[in-house]
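Request: Not sure, any thoughts?
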Amino acid sequence: MRIRAKLTILFAGLTGILLVVAAFFGYYLVQRELTEKIERELSSAVIMHANDLNNNLLSKKKLLEISWYNLEFEAQYGKITPAMLSGYKQADPELTDMYFAFVTGEYIDGSGWVPPAGYDPRQRPWYRQAMEAGRITVTPPYFELVTQQMALAIAMPVRNAQGQIYGVAAADVLLKTLVEKLTWAAAYDGGYAYLLDRNGTILLHPEEALLGVNVVQSPDYQNDLKEVIQRMQREEQGWGRYFYKEHQRLVYFKQVPEVQWTLVMSVPEDVAYAPLRQWALLFLGILFAATGLMAGVSFWVAKRISRPLDELVAQVKRIGEGEAVEEVQASGYYELDDLAVAFNRMAEGLQESFAELSRQGEENAAQLRSFQEITGHLITQGESTQALFAVVTKDVIRLVGGLHSVISTLNESKEGWVVRQSTGPYSLPVGFQSGLSVGVTEEVLRRGEVVFVPDYHSYAKALSYFKEIPIGSCLGLPLQIGGAAVGVLVVAWSQKMAVIDVRTDSILRQYANIVSAALARAQDHEYMYELAYIDELTGLPNRRNFYKQLQEKLAAGETLLGGYVFLLDLDNLKLINDSLGHSQGDRFICAVAAALKCRVPESGIVARLGGDEFGLWLSASDCQEAGLVASELLQSIEDGETEGEHPLHITASMGIAAYPRDGLTVEELLQNADAALYEAKDSGKNAWRMCTRELVQESREKLFLSNALRSAIVNREFSLAFQPIVDAAKNLVAFEALLRWRSAEYGQVPPGKFIPLAEQCGLMPLIGQWVMEQACWFADQLRQQGLGQIRVHVNVSAQQLEDEAFCGMVEDLLRAKLQDRRAIILEVTESVFMASIGQAVTSLHELKQQGLTLSMDDFGEGFSSLAQLLRLPFESLKISRTLVQNLGDDERHMQYIAAIVEMMHALDMEVVAEGVETELEWQSVGICGFDLVQGYYIARPLTADAALEWARENENQQSV
């Protein structure tokens, strides 16, 4: 019986495996044969029609070549007529027109079509291609004027008796005639054929929108389609697949050698392989049927074998449900008989064990209910760490029958311990402290492990506090965080015990773990609070904490008498960090924090808001005079001196906002104090400023303007005005490009207001690039109108010179926009070099190497030294309006300016007078020897069109 069962199962398995293998092998052979048949059929169709198309075009060429040799004979006698051309066209009904163009431009059309006035056949593609080839050729498709349709032409140069080309004869074949020949591909559902030229451009396609499209160069098509098209350009014939319009398509292609086109047949892959799908469905049906049959046979055999086991399974279920078990009878199968005997013996043993387990289960259930009650108590009452400690100490005594329990932790100095919670008649009071010298707590903390004292009164390190208290045994368990003992849970009993039973030990260890987790959670919470609200370097509240505390004070009504917000910013801390290192800068920050903390009362707030910025709050009762307090604070910072190798001093600037005068919310107070801080910095630093109504208004105006400024370029609100610069004879030499902004919201905004704001917002590099592009355009317009000698001056800001990418941007722009880069002169104000001499000089020398002319603007407004001017690569100098104004009123003034001009001439520099507005100033600058003049006396700034007109008129006047 055993061999029969095994053979039955083995036979069913082997038969099933062989059936599946044979089925899959048969499917593979049929699939391969069908695939090859389909691909041969499609490939043969493409090759056949490509050859037909090639032969058709070849026959037309041969026919026309024969006809046009006759034309060569007729051309010698000038007998070419429309009727003659029409007669030749009748030789092939697919030809739509035949025509002839003489090299002189004369044109004869076989259809009688009269060309429009100005028509030159020599400009048509068929004429040019035939002349270039010198032989009969087929042109790419083009728009045919007679039929107003796309066509291709077969053209051939015609020669006279001397062998010279007399003209070109050509005949047209409409593309739609060829399209009709491609309909054979529609025999496949969704299939079509199309033609490509040698460059991959679509010549014929059922979709008219694709005609003339170069798929390889267009970004609108996927890479797989482009790769197949590129293969068509390289290979004579082949096949491929690509995804197009939500379908995977098969393509077969063959070149048409006569015209170097490629004929392509495209068929949806699911349509081409439809026979394969039908065969796959049939195969799956057969396979499922055979599998089902084998499964049924196997199931029948297995059921026959497993029926005797059902009785054993039923008896096992009865054991699991606690019911009485009946003796299992023999079944007649040898193995199952042995199993029945063994099962009956096991059932008897299990019934005896159930009784013992039932008794132990009742005891464990009572203990489990107690622990669940404790756990629920901890969850509901453990809102805080202290509340959890209280629950633990109480429940520990209740569960283990202790006299008292105590939870202690290390104090802040880590040199002693303090009681956090205690329960019991003789327990230590909360807050009790002791050193690390006596007690169970000390020993547990030192050893980091459980300490059990069987007889406490004989314990050498017993606390004197418990000398008169009847304590028998004592157990201390460490409370650990990260493996280090930070506290102790101590439980004492009135009776003496030799050992701690397993149940008590387990309960106490579980509670010690709970308390350890609570302490770790409290420590993490404290650490997270410090990360979120405390500055790591100074230990002061950070910006978020300052905001929170100040908001709480305002909400709680602690500021009824008012108060002040101070924003303090250290001056030139970046210079210290860059020159001495950030560690030295951090020492300054810590020293300032300590100085501020010493001078602000506890009711106030001192915070480090970030970097070199601090925030303070003082109530009106602590600060009777805000200005006096600010001066004292600034003086204390300036007087402070760091210790170490570099004993340096530092200064600060401060802005003050008063509550409630300057704001009712934290945001308003900080914003207005920040505006006052910037005013203090602009005044020269190491100063304080109180917020005023005018300052608030100015700050808001700057905010609104800066927001509008960011969108001005996108909204095309900027424009350039061009002011003429002339020589002593009033001949136009150059224009200065002046930036103007007409805001859609604020109207015309003065440059003196928005340019400094753009520099503060970091927008000058972007705006400057736009100005440079427009100036290059204007210079190119001057060149196109024959005024290329006139230059354009463009102003450059400090931010642009400090940008390392600026010189590269200028080089790229000039190379792309201008033929002569000398048409642009860059103007740099004198104040730039007072702020950033190093990077500015580097940028200027690089611009000079690029071939640009450089000019210093507003000379005389700053404090540039002559030595500094000598090492700068300037070729031109603009004297500021402040020096030119009222020039003729003072002889000493005239001599001073004349000396400057003479000195600049000695340095081979061109000198420009800026801001000339009166006749007297005009005459005076001439006397002083200025080379060029600019100002309202000459002309006001003009629009681009007006400036071009002004330049043309000036040029005409010069010529007269």
In short: The longest strand covers residues 732-743. The CA atoms of residues 565 and 670 lie 7 Å apart. The radius of gyration is 50 Å.
